[in-house]
UniProtKB/TrEMBL annotation:
Belongs to the sulfotransferase 1 family. Residues 110-347 form the Sulfotransferase domain. Gene3D superfamilies: P-loop containing nucleotide triphosphate hydrolases. This is Sulfotransferase. One of its GO terms (molecular function) is [heparan sulfate]-glucosamine 3-sulfotransferase activity. It is found in: Endomembrane system; Golgi apparatus membrane. Its EC number is 2.8.2.-. 3'-phosphoadenylyl sulfate binds at K119, G120, G121, T122, R123, R200, S208, K325, G326, R327, T328, H329. It comes from Betta splendens (Siamese fighting fish). Keywords: Disulfide bond, Glycoprotein, Golgi apparatus, Membrane, Signal-anchor, Transferase, Transmembrane, Transmembrane helix. GO terms for cellular component: Golgi membrane. Residues 73-103 are annotated as: Disordered. It comes from the Eukaryota.
Length: 362
């Protein structure tokens, strides 16, 4: 009778089936949401964990931390160019930017790069730019496009500081400018990336470079014997790295094969010292940012002989770049200087024509 009853009440069966289906789907939605939440938690815990594990050697490299470090990765590494390996493993450090919106920030590939030149003033530019609330910059030099390209873009992205929508992510590696394969690689990452090059009189730049080399390896030969192939004939060794880097036109040509001139901004290393606010104003324009960094952020430190950052509100002292920036240069025979100026003159003229800018180097 009961079976008969079930057989003859198909609606009751359907209702039961529907009820079971509803319970089952609610349960699977619940399980799915739980799994999703748990995965999310683990991911953020992992990210936080690796942030916290910034290697001690990186912290040490960040010897002279700057004020305004809201945007920093723990401070500026000094003299990482060339060596550069100090950048490895360096993470973005504190994410706090005072906005209280860190949880919405993400790691993104850079939209702007300071690609050179070594000893041009790249550290000063990066540290000054970090004052801008719309810039998030990696403090160390990642050397991705020249040394660590095989690690892939995910690795590169993971090195970047977290940024909010609308903030510009950037890094500086001065060696990019002179590495042959870099323009193509940067283009493969983004054809819209904005490129900044700080250029400085190539003779002064070469001596600055040599001064750094000799500070690390005091036994190297004198500048003069490395700069010339033949001192008697005055034949310059343009393949010697400190001189070769200064052949700006030659290096820029490679970048112009991949990027339009409008996407490359040149900063005068000399004006970055004599008028930092003016140079910074032009860089902010180029990046499409409001001019927030102005002359009120700088003062000229007579002892150091360079512009430094003023005391930020509520912070301790004014800050200058570290000891490796603004060093006393090795003294070079004036006749050698003249010969070097003659050597660079045509290259500089070509560079001025290519860029439409006269940097006034003698
Ligand atoms: N504000 C300020 N303070 C100190 N130094 C300044 C500043 N602005 C520009 N410079 C010049 O920057 C030169 C070092 O350039 P880089 O930072 O590009 O060097 S590196 O490639 O990262 O090693 C460094 O070169 P040297 O003077 O030869 O040490 C400085 O001349």
């Amino acid at each position: 009778m009961a079976a008969f009853h079930r057989l003859h009440h198909p609606h009751a069966d359907l209702r039961r089936l529907f009820h079971r289906l509803t319970v089952a789907s609610s349960l699977s939605i619940l399980c799915f949401s739980l799994a999703y939440l748990l995965t999310g938690c683990c991911e953020s815990q992992l990210a936080d964990g690796s942030e916290a594990k910034t290697p001690a050697r990186d912290s040490a490299a960040f010897g002279s931390a700057w004020p305004y470090d809201r945007n920093a990765t723990g401070g500026a590494p000094e003299g990482t160019s060339g060596a550069g390996e100090g950048a490895l493993g360096a993470r973005a450090g504190p994410e706090a930017n005072g906005s209280g919106k860190e949880w919405t920030a993400t790691r993104r590939l850079p939209q702007a790069l300071i690609i050179g030149v070594k000893k041009g003033g790249t550290r000063a530019l990066l540290e000054f730019l970090r004052l801008h609330p719309d810039i998030r910059a990696l403090g160390s030099e990642p050397h991705f496009f020249d040394r660590h390209y095989a690690r892939g873009l995910d690795w590169y992205r993971s090195m970047m500081p977290k940024a909010l929508d609308g903030q510009i992510v950037m890094e500086k590696t001065p060696r990019y400018f002179v590495t042959v394969e870099t323009p193509q690689r940067v283009h493969a990452m983004s054809r819209d990336v904005k490129l900044i090059v700080v250029v400085r009189d190539p003779v002064t730049r070469a001596i600055s470079d040599y001064t750094q080399i000799i500070s690390k390896t005091p036994d190297i030969p004198a500048f003069e014997s490395l700069a010339f192939k033949n001192r008697t004939t005055g034949q310059i060794d343009s393949l010697w790295s400190p001189l070769w880097i200064g052949l700006y036109a030659q290096h820029l040509e490679r970048w112009l094969a991949w990027f339009p001139r409008s996407q490359i901004h040149l900063v005068s290393g000399e004006r970055l010292i004599s008028d930092p606010a003016g140079e910074l104003g032009r860089v902010q324009d180029f990046l499409g940012l409001q001019r927030i960094i102005t002359d009120k952020h700088f003062y000229f430190n007579k002892t150091k002989g360079f512009p430094c950052l003023k005391k930020p509100e509520g912070s301790s002292k004014p800050h200058c770049l570290g000891k490796t920036k603004g060093r006393t240069h090795a003294s070079i025979d004036p006749a050698v200087m003249r010969r070097l100026r003659d050597f660079y003159r045509p290259h500089n003229q070509r560079f001025y024509r290519m860029t439409g800018q006269d940097f006034g180097w003698q």
